[in-house]
Fold this sequence. Notes:
Elements: E1 2-9, H1 12-26, E2 29-34, E3 40-46, E4 61-65, H2 78-82, E5 87-90, E6 98-100, E7 102-108, H3 111-127, E8 129-136, E9 142-150, H4 152-159, E10 163-165, E11 171-175
Amino acid sequence: MATLNLQFHARRDEVAHLAGQWVNEFGLWLAYETLTPEHRSAVVARGQVSGALEIPDSVGRILLSCYPIEVESPGPFGLIGDNPTGLSILLGRESGSVLGESVLQALTDDLKSLSGWRRIRKSMAASFHKGAHVVNGATGIRGSAPDHYFSPGARALYARGVRMAGLAEPLSYEFDVPD
């Protein structure tokens, strides 16, 4: 089974723009998943998006699929559990002072899906900047994260002093930004 993963920082509108492009380019299905305070999911695209796609603040994860998405019985793993060939993006929180880390991931042996997910990951990585350091705010320990990606929008927020939060609360990222 192949695994794809990409940890990154990007504004929600940038992720929405990319997801809309992918839906239209590859004829994908797209669903939104709200994780808290109560779990909800809904299919928002079936092979095409007309107009600009917006991801509401309440959405914690999106799922892309080459096949129709099952949303009726999410089970303990949410949409991923019933749609195992899908590509999920866990969305980081976004506010005026913080932009959270997001994660693109897939785990599948479906060749059609895997081919598409590899193309999406490659195009995303090519359009983002790469390289950061992660800092543990509780201990002050700083480590290299050379394979961490960030979008142009995240780079602009970072330059304005917005904290780039990690998945775990005490972690923050410092982007390697050339002068």
